[in-house]
Amino acid sequence: MESYAEKHDFPIIGPACGYYCYQLARMIGAKSIFELGSGYGYSTAWFAKALQENGGGVVHHTVWDGQLSKMASSYMLRLGYVDLVQFHVAEAVETLGKQSSLFDIIFNDIDKEAYPESLGQIKKKLRSGGLLIIDNMLWSGRVFDEKDVSPATEGVREFTRRITADKDWIVSLALMRDGMIIAYKK
Ligand SMILES: C[S@@+](CC[C@H](N)C(=O)[O-])C[C@H]1O[C@@H](n2cnc3c(N)ncnc32)[C@H](O)[C@@H]1O
Fold this sequence. Notes:
Layout: H1 2-8, H2 14-27, E1 32-36, H3 42-53, E2 58-63, H4 66-79, E3 85-89, H5 92-97, E4 103-108, H6 115-125, E5 126-134, H7 151-165, E6 169-174, E7 180-185
Parallel strand pairs: 1-2, 1-4, 2-3, 4-5
Antiparallel strand pairs: 5-7, 6-7
């Protein structure tokens, strides 16, 4: 899966962040995980590995491209994780809103301009004591470039402002690869 990303220049979270997601999911004994923006399933595989070792559960894979979803399902089959994954070909935040249960972990990796608006729905669907993991919080350093006011960069900045101003979250930034916010919902 890593070779595919390299060959096709596909933005996966990579092994260090993947391993960290796996560790966090193991540490809290996660059983239910919702991923927003799952690509062809690289991050999903790390979460599924944790679920398998935690004794079972489900990770929701969401992407709006049917071809990527098919690729993900074929990789999950090869890895022995397919029974732990539920696949959705749809807009991720809307799909999260349709879920009836709360999640132990929500992982967000959708288009960055949509980050700020996703926070409300995420807060509703994460259990108290659950973890929100959100990727690309450094956005290759563009968040520090005052001249960059593109919708994606502004999306990352606004999301950071909103979550750090909200007293219901305990927030830190893991300085790994492109920066991941780890937020604990009180
Ligand atoms: C950064 S990639 C995901 C990489 C994946 N998390 C990994 O590390 O393996 C984001 C993917 O989600 C899709 N995507 C972006 N915004 C989305 C949204 N709002 N709903 C569904 N899919 C979305 C993109 O087209 C892309 O395939």
